[in-house]
Amino acid sequence: SLLMSVFIPEMGENHSEDRNSNTYRFLCPHAGQFQCKITNIVFEMEGKGEVLYRIVSWDTRLLDGLGHMQPAGPLYEIDCCEGSVSHLHLPHCEVISEEHQVELAVARFTGENLEVIKPLRVTDTHVIVAIHGLSLFGLIRKIFPARSMSAQVLLFYKPITGMQNLKQLHIHLLPRVVPVKEVQDQHMDFKHITTSSTCQLTPGRKYRPSCDHYVPQPKVTIFDCDYGPNYHPTFEVFLEADHVTVNLLDENEEEVWETHRLYLTEGSYVSSLGVAFVDTHKNELIQRVSSVMEIADCLKSKNMITDEMYSNIQAASTSHQRMRFLYDALQTTGKAGKAELYEILKEKMPHLVEDLESGPSQCFRMPRST
Question: Which domains does the chain have, with CATH numbers?
Answer without folding.
Answer: 4-142 (2.60.220.50), 149-263 (2.60.40.2660), 272-358 (1.10.533.10)
